[in-house]
Automatic annotation (TrEMBL):
This is ABC transporter related protein. Coiled coil: none annotated. InterPro entries: AAA+_ATPase, ABC_transporter-like_ATP-bd, ABC_transporter-like_CS, P-loop_NTPase. Transmembrane segments: none annotated. The keyword Transport applies. Gene3D superfamilies: P-loop containing nucleotide triphosphate hydrolases. Residues 5-242 form the ABC transporter domain. It holds the Pfam family ABC_tran. It comes from Sediminispirochaeta smaragdinae (strain DSM 11293 / JCM 15392 / SEBR 4228) (Spirochaeta smaragdinae). Keywords: ATP-binding, Nucleotide-binding, Transport. One of its GO terms (molecular function) is ATP binding.
Amino acid sequence: MAKIIHISGLKKRFGANIVLDGIDLDFEAKKVTAIIGQSGTGKSVLLKTVNGILQADEGSIALDGKPMEAMEEKELLEARRRFGYLFQNAALFDSMTVEQNIAFPLREMLGIKDRKKIRERVREMLSWVDLEGIEKKFPAELSGGMRKRVGFARTLAPEPDILLFDEPTTGLDPVLSESINELISRVNRELGMTCIVISHDIAGMFAYADTIAFLADGKIAAKGKPGELARSNHPVLRKFLEYSFTNFDAYEDNQCRDS
Ligand SMILES: Nc1ncnc2c1ncn2[C@@H]1O[C@H](COP(=O)(O)OP(=O)(O)OP(=O)(O)O)[C@@H](O)[C@H]1O
């Protein structure tokens, strides 16, 4: 299987806080990889380091076999253009309409000036996320789920080939969460985009991801297909999965109290 990103020995600290302590991890092209782990273990820091928002202290991130830290400025800029990043809070510009938000990367990143072309692309993107006809609305007029979808459309608009999702379903109800996971799966299948997702929706990731990586103590403690991780004997991972999937013991205790 082709590796699109190869991470080796990646370290990142903030002062005395060692967050990433030697990450070795590959991402396969055109697959969905989920990164899971307890809060504060460094999942977002890892994603931001891959995307170049944060600078690693040590280690290497290679894109299609070429270490990004060795790239010339122009080459690095082109490499960065291949990434799309959907932030946790969708990060829309409040003073801009939906259309202006989605058009922003088309104008600023791709330099597209043709208004008709931009309008068509915005319409196409809104149709992708099932939000046709909301071009003139402002983010404040949208529900949280709609804002996430508009953020998704904006990330998709410049056609990146690697999509990074930071908690795409946080704050959404289970039905909306499922629809966002389904969207990720669709862009992966139909547009052939490589998707890297950090999520606390563990059941969703076990349902949709091809590969799952478990981050603990600054390292990738386990990695494999969902079934392989589910069968893993890694004690920290086991505990994490037991708590992540419905806690039936607590449910049964609660039922006993009610009856
Ligand atoms: N810019 C920063 N400056 C200083 N410390 C930071 C910075 N960004 C993250 N950290 C620290 O890095 C650690 C990991 O944070 P990170 O947000 O990556 O965790 P996470 O696994 O994504 O958590 P969650 O699941 O709660 O989103 C935390 O201790 C956090 O305080």
